[in-house]
Amino acid sequence: MDTTVEKKYTFKDFSSDQEVRWCPGCDDYVILRAMQKALPEMGVKKEDVVFISGIGCSSRFPYYMDTYGMHSIHGRAPAIATGTKLANPDLSVWVITGDGDSMAIGGNHFIHALRRNVDLNIILFNNEIYGLTKGQFSPTSVVGQKTKSSPYGNTQPPFSAGELAIGAQARFFARIGGNTPKEMTQLFIEAEKFKGTSLIEVMQNCPIFNDGCYDEFTDKAVRADKQLFVEHGKPMVFGKERDKGLVLKGLKLEVVTIGENGVTEDDILVHDAKEPDPTLHQMLVRMYYPKVTGIIRSFDDVTLEERKNDQIGAVKANSKFSVTDDLFFSGDTYEVE
Amino acid sequence: MATTKTNHQQETLEAVIIRFVGDSGDGMQLTGTQFSDTSAMFGNDIATFPNYPAEIRAPQGSLYGVSGFQVHIGSVEISTPGDEVDLLVAMNPAGLKTNLHAVKPGHTIIVDTDAFTKKNLEKAQYESNPLEDGSLENYQVIEVTMTSLTKETLKDVEGLDNKSITRSKNMFALGMVYWMYDRSTDHTIDFFKKKFSSKPHLIEANTKVLNTGYYFAETLELIPNSYTVAPAKMASGTYRIIMGNTATAWGFLAASEKCGLDLFLGSYPITPASDILHELAKHQHFGVKTFQAEDEIAGITSAIGASFAGSLALTTTSGPGLALKGEALGLAMMIEMPLVVVNVQRGGPSTGLPTKTEQSDLLQTLYGRNGESPIIVIAASTPSNCFDFAYEASKLTLEYMTPVVLLTDGYIANGSAPWKIKSVKDMPEINNNIIQVAKENWHPYDRDEKTLARSWALPGTPGLEHRVGGLEKDRVSGNVSYVPDNHEYMVNIRAEKIKRAQNSIPELVPEFADEGDLLVIGWGGTYGSLYSSIKHLREEGIKTIGFAHFNYINPLPKNTVEVLKRFKKIVVCELNSGQFAKVLKLNFNDFDILQFNKIQGLPFGNEELVQKFKQLLK
Ligand SMILES: Cc1ncc(C[n+]2csc(CCOP(=O)(O)OP(=O)(O)O)c2C)c(N)n1
Ligand code: SF4
Ligand SMILES: [Mg+2]
User: Fold this and answer.
1) Is residue B297 part of a domain?
2) For this chain's UniProt record, which GO biological process terms are given (chain A) (predicted)?
3) Which pLDDT value is given to residue A1?
């Protein structure tokens, strides 16, 4: 298929005529707008873009995009998208999912999609709550969280999405705050460029059922000090004054201050997102403070559809069967007069 | 070095049923397949059925480790693998013990006496040796020291270890049976040449043992005569022996070639459906994409995703898997997407009897989804027509934009029979609803006036971007709608669409009699058993019995009620507690519908059917 795009799109080309129905102030609006802005920059044709979602507030997303889309059933979007991409590898296939959709009911499909490395882009709207069903705890809710189904506090320890994903062989994992649209747009573009399953976790605020759950990292006033936005090849420096950084002490990451105790910028770890060994990526994902955002892992590997298509090509080249007649009339046949 | 037969007393038979049994490692499947292929090539009509142990490596010599293969050959039409056998070949005591009940009294049993050791007798839970205690006196027992004779035959062949030597004793048995039924050993020798092309000593060894068995039978005085079964009258053409599951897989290959859409199979392994996955996985040269998913839900949903992208998509499973697929099947129905689901039924409920046959998923298939969610349901009825109904399922799903469930069962899926090979060029056209250009004011749920199928716009097509989903849609725009009247309208139109499929399916044509005293009704895999028992009654002179077998379950053939009206009594025979009878009662409440049911994991036997029909005709 011809991938050059003559038409220049704007975000309007990707906005459907459907009225958006999320609650006012919901971060889902930010994600929608970031996506509509990112798509014209990706160099893909509008007709080749497919959004497939499960069920949840977040999963209403495809209705608002003027592309091909499917609002499917709870948890199954990664499996549906896998079929779509295998059937037509020329498409740009996006999965829209929530924390419950991907890690509770759809946990199995989620980990297997990551393991297989199909060229999908998964946007995980992690609000640490079940939004659509009006506020039960989710697999990412923290212990003690009071929700409708845990009035005395949640007793189930949470998953960390990134840790789970990298454990499941994710080649691309990025994390971003729900209130930083510019960086988010950029990550969507990077995810599309990456060949393989890309997972982007958005720390999405649900102002109705879990308001402020990420404030300690995402609030404008503290963001620079509490978030480390990593970039491949650059030292892992953060802070309002850009004076904080990460170093490796023994088997642990440690925050140090440049200029104190003889620490210089040269001592700070340089981020290598492309390293196949996920050990350091896992450590970055697990850090509580600073919360690491940006592309944490981006390791190039063969995709499932490449493997499959290569195999089909090789089998075709060596096969004596080109049409079904060749097969049906081969081997032990016999004539009845 | 082919065998030649000297003059001998010979008796001609119309049909013969033979069962080969032994330990899992004794090669009984191969022995049976060789005998049935040879007979088919000789011109007999045949039907076969394997019987494997459920355990993969059951302990040697144990009762539950017995593997068997039954062959029914005839100069007349053969429609089932048959019930009681004329000849049992038992390679060990466990095989004899578990299969003796199936031998017709007075008929022949061949045993390998070398296997009747104290240890094997104990494993088979025999208190005394049946070959010595008189318990087999009602049978003609032919005792052969098969293992020693095989060893003796091969003592001069170089390069054989002990294991390969004892393993070839099944060929000794096959050689004997070839002689008894006047069959040539040629086909099997050709088979050795192909199979062991890089191991000439194995060709030599197996051929030697086969021929020795053949001549041993000839010189053995214990076998008074040999038999012959003449070629059957079959339509002329090119044939092959095909297993039901293979025929199913090939039907989809044919449909994919005809309609020009790539075939996609999303599946999760489950007995007895896995062989369809195995077969299609072999045929990537046709562009087939098979995807072994993480579970049944991913099997069907990946197929839905592939269908969305424009493949001819299917998923294959058995009962428990269908239960898992229910929600996704509802989605496919709701978004009106083509999708074929094959359910190779097995004994239920729950894990049930995985290796046994049953027809107990009918109601699950028809009604096992939330909401009003009718779909097309069809059923294959013989190993070879699995091909036709897989093709038909593909045609209906593409023409009506609805999921279609194809029901088969363990009995026809594992059974094999001659198939007059069909070429894609002789198969009916398959239309689809794909649109490439947006007409003014196009909407994704615009329907074909005749079939009510919606139009199918594939991702990648400019100007037709649209969203589908499980929420109810507006009848015109296809956008989400909660309007009460609209919902009712959509529920009705989806049901009406399924009903319209009646226009594409053949009318019901009863066999044997158009009207009369008794109409026997069946559906799916029981065709062969029902057909042969009614034929049996006709041969006894009973002419007032008719037979209506259903391959189309939803919708039912248009003329069903007219057929029912023409008979005084109606009996529905099925391998469940009366599921199709319920469906008929629901649809046609003016009739007194009787039932004959069997729920033992086994097919109907001829005798029980004949008895039942006679009783109903009284
Ligand atoms: C099979 C099934 N079970 C349960 C539900 C109910 N349900 C809908 S969305 C949802 C949870 C959604 O949470 P999440 O995935 O975090 O999405 P959010 O609404 O927070 O964006 C549940 C339990 C359903 N639709 N389908
Ligand atoms: S419930 Fe929460 S997540 Fe859902 S739309 Fe409202 S604010 Fe957003
Ligand atoms: Mg959520």
Assistant:
1) yes
2) cellular respiration; small molecule metabolic process
3) 45
